[in-house]
Amino acid sequence: MIGLGPGGPEGLSGQAREALARAEAVVGYRTYLDQVRPLLAGKKVYASGMTRELDRAAQALDLAAGGLPTAVVSGGDPGIYAMASVVFELIAARGLALGQGPDMFDVRVIPGIPALAAAAALLGAPLGHDFAAVSLSDRLTPWELIARRLDLAAQADFVLVLYNPKSRGRDWQYAEALKLAGRRRPPGTPVGLVSRAMREGQAVRITTLSQAAAAEVDMQTLVVIGNSRSFVYQGRMVTP
Amino acid sequence: MIGLGPGGPEGLSGQAREALARAEAVVGYRTYLDQVRPLLAGKKVYASGMTRELDRAAQALDLAAGGLPTAVVSGGDPGIYAMASVVFELIAARGLALGQGPDMFDVRVIPGIPALAAAAALLGAPLGHDFAAVSLSDRLTPWELIARRLDLAAQADFVLVLYNPKSRGRDWQYAEALKLAGRRRPPGTPVGLVSRAMREGQAVRITTLSQAAAAEVDMQTLVVIGNSRSFVYQGRMVTP
Fold first, then answer.
1. B149/A130 touch (CB, cutoff 8 Å), yes or no
2. What b/e readout covers A37-55, taking b as 16+ CB neighbours within 10 angstroms?
3. Across-strand partners of B5?
4. Shortest CA distance to A128 belongs to which of B119, B114, B194, B165?
5. Is the model's pTM score more than 0.90?
6. DSSP strand E in A179-218: where?
7. C-alpha to C-alpha distance for A154 and A150, rounded to whole angstroms
8. Which of A7, A167, B81, B186 sees the fewest Cβ atoms within 10 Å?
9. 3-state class (DSSP) for residue B220
10. To the nearest whole number, what is the mean pLDDT of chain B?
11. What's the angle, vertex CA A166, arms to CA A161 and CA A169, rounded to 5?
12. What is the dihedral of CA B113, B117, B123, B129, to 10 degrees?
């Protein structure tokens, strides 16, 4: 499992680049594969759409079982809201043996720069102290649990990083999350919004907790809500 | 501000490598500079010790004010428990102008692979769902706030990532943090410990919440406490 980091080929670590070079088959979400096209020449490429995570994991394990050095790529880091846990879950469900012997799967995770680090870099330094990452997608997690996490994290004065704020057919969770945070933090609390960090169409905005609901967000947006000490200085959001 | 990622030069992104190549002066913590020595040839290098963060920020701003393209390097990501917020705080305290005009500071943050992503990759996929990062250092944060964050994050069933579990002269916070987590989570909860991820002396261990207090940890160790659904499969820690 290889993390591509944000944006194009210049976002990969040297280690990730090397691992990708050794792969003969590459499995991934179409958008991420397109970002690193120049690195895929001569490889068998298996592109699929969003929400096909389990299919990708199964395909990768089948390819690897067939003897092909196989890479599963994720944008950002493979371990943070991405493919690594999906692949390990399937490995466990199938009862596969991990290791380097015959009939064993030599599985490695090569980290990448996560979306939260890329977004933070563009905003300034909003993650300068303790923070919590919460996905607003209730596709596989009940909203009650997500809401509880948001509320407790806001009480604890964590900087909040919201993944997947909105998608087609999932449009109220973002406003609800802001409302929950707003019960614990003043309306002037800085909020940073980063869409498509270091990719085409990048957008970086800084607003406040009371204004943030009006901002356009989608699945490609990361939302960072400051803690009680976060401030904005000349267009940069900073948490001491 | 440039993130070096974990380990040696192969941990940097292409973007970070390029930014570092353009710098004529490089300021950083000695250990991190040593990791990327081959990339520093011909540059003025200003190395300093741990806890000298504010000195490093001041030195970097002075060098930049003198007209030198200056890099402040951090291991991992500069935005997560590292130099970016320190530099921005000092910029704000000095009232410096940010931008590209004359007498302005053109400050950029180049992200790196954070320690938490590197540690997670070595453990398996423990950050597969919502998580909270908490530093146990009470040098600048009162322990009461740290304890409250740990307790609320444990209640919220976040995977917990503990930074700075122990240092010389700070030896009880780690056991106390485990105790707080243990009030909310069963004793068999998986705990991953990663020291010096992807560097010389790397150590990766997986234990349980009830056993973790016995493990050796230091400032270079990251501790990952699973949520209620985390499991261990053949030596890998996974959160679905």
1. yes
2. eebbeebebbbeeeeebee
3. B76
4. B114
5. yes
6. 190-195, 203-208
7. 6
8. B186
9. coil
10. 96
11. 155
12. -160
pLDDT band at residue B50 using 50, 70 and 90 as cut-offs: confident
d(CA B229, CA A216): 33
Tell me what the mean pLDDT of segment A181-198 comes to.
97
Residue (of A111, A23, A128) closest to A67 by Cα position: A23
Please answer yes or no on whether A80 and B117 come within 8 Å at the CB atom: yes
From the number of C-beta atoms within 10 Å of its C-beta (0-12, 13-18, 19+), residue A175 rates as middle
Q: How many CA atoms lie within 13 A of B222 on its CB side?
A: 29
For the record, the structure tokens of B157 come out as 């069933």
What average pLDDT score do residues A201-222 get? 96
Q: Give B124→chain A minimum CA distance, Å.
A: 7
Backbone angles phi, psi at B46, to 5 degrees: -115, 100
Query: Is B89 at the interface with chain A, CB within 8 A?
Result: yes
Say how far apart CA B32 and CA B74 lie, in whole Å.
7
The predicted-structure confidence for A72-104, as pLDDT tens digits, reads as follows 999 999 999 999 999 999 999 999 999 999 899
Q: Assess B75–A contact: CB distance below 8 Å, yes or no.
A: no
> Within the 12-31 window of chain B, which residues sit less than 8 Å (CB to CB) from chain A?
12-15, 17-18
pLDDT tens digits, residue range B74-83? 999 999 999 9
Q: Does B165 touch chain A (CB under 8 A)?
A: no
Cβ within 8 Å, pair B13-A18: no
Q: Which residues contact residue B118 at a Cβ distance below 8 angstroms, ignoring those fewer than 6 apart?
A: A111, B5, B6, B7, B11, B76, B194, B197, B198
Contacts of residue B116, Cβ cutoff 8 Å, sequence gap at least 6: B80, B127, B133, B161, B163, B222, B224
**From CA B21, how far away is CA B38, in angstroms rounded?**
11
**Torsional sign, CA A29, B120, A76, A109:** negative
Tokens 């990339």, residue located:
B39
